[in-house]
Amino acid sequence: MSRLPTSGEWREGSLCRTTADWPFHWVAEITAMDPVSGSYTCIGTFRQAGARRYDEALANLRLMTRAPAMLRHLQAVAQVLDMSGPDHEAFADSAADCLDALLQQQEPLRELLREVGLAHPQSPVPANDQIGDDRPEHTGRRA
Amino acid sequence: MAIASFWPDGAQAACRIMSGISPAEWYPSYLDLVAAIRIRMRQDMRSFDPIHRWRGTAHRVLLRNPYADIGLTCLDGQAAVWIGERIDRDYLIRCEWSDVSGPARLWLSSIAPTFDASAARLGFAPIHQPGDQPWLKAA
Q: Which of B45, B79, B80 is nearest to B64 (CA)?
């Protein structure tokens, strides 16, 4: 039996405090957006101890939402390992082929590391930051 | 049975297709839709204020007034905008202290044509509840 995570691209909401005063928790919503099936659903709320520093909590949250992407990369690397295993049916008796398959993963892997790393990516506005978003440019183009 | 999950039980809904959009364009068009619903619905029903909540995992609440929620559900390439009586904790506490639910339902039935018209302007086709409602007959 395989247990698959929620399909689609995971997105984190803003990291917020539960209350203005101590003690509080860090909470952030995680949603799943699947443009192929055309779904936008809520996965749940990620709650962390308020004693954690903000940037640490934010890093934890980012790591959490990248988990399905990391799983995909692990699967891809495992496939390369299969290719290099003489006993495996996917064995390719060529170091160049294995290296080529590994290098194909390089760009997305580095992108992922950049996102969870210290560099703040140009992330899109979280869904729960949209309140009061008066978009003057909206002309009912897709309405 | 399957179609009922596109909007919360008891809510009045309107649907449109949300597929055939390229994956890169899907999220921006979703955000546009959310913004359009918040702006246009408030023009027609001024008592609503923007809010962000979820009912379960699929139904996203976009606007709220003292009686009702307006929300959006996007599943399997379909988008449904719906209006329904509130079910949140604050509302249920108010219901315990006074009869809020009665006036709320009365108000919802009076606002139904306005909601339908407003949804139609946003490109949503009104869904009329199926005629066979066995629970009504049993009552």
A: B45
Which B-chain residues 48-67 have CB contacts (< 8 A) with chain A?
A: 50-52, 54, 56-58, 60
Inter-chain residue contact A131 with B75, CB threshold 8 Å: no
- Which chain B residues contact residue A38 at CB under 8 A? 18-19, 21, 26, 74-79
From the list B85, B63, B81, B65, the residue with the least C-alpha distance to B73 is B81
Strand pairing category for B78-85 and B68-75: antiparallel
Given a contact cutoff of 8 angstroms between Cβ atoms, the answer to whether A81 and A60 are in contact is no
pLDDT 10s digit of each residue in chain A, 143 long? 567 888 888 988 888 899 888 889 999 999 998 888 888 999 999 999 989 999 889 989 998 998 888 888 888 888 888 888 888 777 777 878 888 888 888 888 888 888 877 545 455 555 555 555 544 444 444 43
- Tokens matching residue A108: 């997305």
Query: What's the rounded Cα separation, in Å, for the pair A62 and A46?
Result: 11
Of A33, A41, A127, nearest to B58 by CB-CB distance is A41
